[in-house]
Automatic annotation (TrEMBL), chain A:
Coiled-coil region: none
Highest taxon above the source species: Bacteria
Classification via PANTHER family: CONSERVED WITHIN P. AEROPHILUM, PEROXIREDOXIN FAMILY PROTEIN
Gene3D superfamilies in UniProt: DsrEFH-like
Organism, scientific name: Flagellimonas lutimaris
Annotated SUPFAM superfamilies: DsrEFH-like
Protein name according to UniProt: Peroxiredoxin family protein
UniProtKB/TrEMBL annotation, chain B:
Family per similarity comment: Belongs to the DsrC/TusE family.
Keywords, alphabetical: Cytoplasm
UniProt keyword annotation of Cytoplasm present: yes
Lineage of producing organism: Bacteria, Pseudomonadati, Bacteroidota, Flavobacteriia, Flavobacteriales
Compartment(s): Cytoplasm
Keyword Cytoplasm belongs to the record: yes
InterPro entries assigned: DsrC-like_C, DsrC-like_dom_sf, DsrC-like_N, DsrC/TusE
Gene3D superfamilies in the cross-refs: 3.30.1420.10, DsrC-like protein, C-terminal domain
Species of provenance: Flagellimonas profundi
Residues making up the signal peptide according to the UniProt record: none
Transmembrane region(s): none
Name of the protein in its database record: TusE/DsrC/DsvC family sulfur relay protein
NCBIfam families given in the database record: dsrC_tusE_dsvC
Length: 158, 102
């Protein structure tokens, strides 16, 4: 148990772009490293990050992302998104940032709970076998809120 | 600032990390661990040795490095140093708190 006022961080990850997935992972891992409990609820496109077949193929958004400093039309050309994603993955590797699959293992081993959103799982016609083995379960939003029901809990939507 | 740990005077920073590794010894490590609520065992010392080696070789510490260490897995690491394992282990080891975000 931590001495901090924040006792538990709950993240809702709704997007599957690399920048959003890593933001959630780094913060969830950072919480555990500080002795704070953490959990991630993967919903809508966020589910891509826990699908066995998709998690190593996530991209950065090159279109509609002004911080890429790239004309939107260029960002939309075939291959540009893949190129930018590979460049970013290389930079992250230099900082010893693990790839998505390994990061999920680290999170799970660190005691971070990983949940899939039931509604989104049904909507994308996914089954449990499509999702990572380290998944802690499939929850409704009600179940998730009940996990937030204690003092010092913060919820963050990414 | 100076602090007396295990009958020795050592300099520490505001959070209690030793600022001069040469002042560290096992008794000091054991005492800091007690303050953190940790009773040191052989397994604990094995990890402390590992992270001190990393420090001496100026290699950055991260949770990923622990995973790859071959000394311990992440689950055991959290179990041995509950409530912020790398933070506590580095304090016991007498080295600075890791600056990495991972």
């Amino acid at each position: 148990m931590s001495d901090t006022k924040v006792k538990k961080m709950l993240f809702i990850l709704s997007k599957a772009t690399l920048e959003n997935v890593y933001a959630a992972f780094v913060m969830a891992n950072g919480a555990r490293m500080e002795g704070i409990e953490s959990e991630i609820f993967f919903t809508f496109f966020g589910l891509e990050a826990i699908q066995k077949k998709k998690l190593e193929h996530l991209h950065v958004a090159t279109v509609g992302n002004p911080a890429m400093h790239m004309p939107t039309m260029l960002g939309g050309l075939p291959g540009v998104e893949a190129l930018a994603s590979n460049m970013m993955k290389k930079e992250m590797d230099k900082l010893d940032m693990p790839p998505v699959g390994e990061f999920l293992e680290i999170l799970s081993d660190s005691g971070c709970k990983l949940w899939a959103c039931k509604l989104a799982v049904d909507m994308f016609h996914l089954e449990e076998k499509d999702l990572i083995d380290d998944l802690d379960g499939i929850l409704t939003i009600g179940d998730f809120y009940s996990r937030a029901d204690q003092d010092g809990t913060q919820l963050l939507f990414i | 600032m100076d602090k007396t740990i295990a009958q020795a005077t050592v300099s520490v920073d505001q959070e209690g990390y030793l600022t001069d590794f040469s002042q560290w010894n096992k008794e000091i490590g054991t005492e800091i661990a007690k303050e953190q609520g940790i009773e040191m065992t052989d397994k604990h010392w094995e990890i402390i040795d590992f992270i001190q080696d990393k420090f001496k070789n100026e290699e950055p510490l991260s949770i990923r490095g622990i995973k790859k260490s071959g000394v311990i897995n992440i689950k055991e690491f959290y179990a041995l140093f509950p409530g912020g394992p790398l933070k506590k282990a580095t304090m016991i080891a007498g080295i600075p708190k890791p600056k990495s975000c991972i």
